[in-house]
Amino acid sequence: KEDYGKCELYVANLEGKERKKLADLMEADVICDVLYHDNMIYVSYLQTQKDGQGSDIYGIYAYDLDKRKGYELFRKEGNGYCPDGMAMGDKWLYISYAYSDASKDEILAHSEDQQFEKDHMKTCVKGIDPVSGNVKKSLDGFGNNNVLLYKQGYLFYTKDQDLYCYSEKSDSAEKINEGRLYCRDRRSGGKSIFQSVGSQNRKINMRCL
Questions:
Q1: Nearest in space to 107 (alpha carbons), one of 144, 81, 84
Q2: Whole-angstrom Cα distance, residue 209 to residue 181?
């Protein structure tokens, strides 16, 4: 279709009725995540290569509901982009994504080599200015299935399958749990519930942080 990839923003009541179009947004192949904060809407999206030509584009589009105006907040071009989560902190908007540092020709030449793909896959967590999109903080880690979560001054994320937390106040990060930990509930009495699964007996453990 001619309009494939065109994204539009609508508002509706809580029952999904009385829909009203607010704006035309960016063009995208995949909408990865949407976050609402302080009358701003942030949309994480992906544009993929067409017929093996060009680069993947990973971006964050911001729309101001007060000004009825949208703009591209963040944009990266390259290969193998895989967005994984957004979280709004007190200072920055945190985003997580993975990408390949190999060239397009190298990726095509090793299309069946999973080890090559693993060796060249890089992950990161970025704290960006929610207005300008400038990168203010870079962390070595990943959202890991949207574990990326901000609570009471701390950002939770994963690195090498371990759970870390970053403090905006002290500008420091520390490992707080070894082994995979997945976010289960983000609204339990102001705390966050995480689930871990034992590697041997597959026992499920719950932690409240």
A1: 81
A2: 11
Residue with tokens 């029952």: 15
208 token code pair: 């409240």
* Ranges of the chain whose pLDDT falls below 50: 1, 188, 197, 199-206, 208
Phi/psi of residue 15, nearest 5 degrees: -95, 0
Q: Is 106 helix (H, G, I), strand (E, B) or coil?
A: helix
For 177-186, the pLDDT digits (tens) are 765 555 555 5
Express each pLDDT in 98-139 by its tens digit. Answer: 888 888 888 888 888 889 888 888 888 999 999 999 999 999
For every residue of 29-79, DSSP letters joined together read SEEEEEEEETTEEEEEEEEPPBTTBS-EEEEEEEEETTTTEEEEEEEEEEE
Six-digit token string for 176: 């707080």
- The dihedral sign for the CA sequence 42, 131, 144, 55: positive
Yes or no: say if 61 and 86 are a contact pair by the CB < 8 Å rule: no
Alpha-carbon gap, residue 67 to 83, rounded angstroms: 28
CB neighbours of residue 84 within 10 Å: 22
Confidence (pLDDT) at 136: 95
- Compute the C-alpha angle 87/90/91, nearest 5°: 95
What six digits make up the tokens of 53?
Answer: 């030509």
Six-digit token string for 118: 């693993």
Taking the model in full, what pTM does it have? 0.79
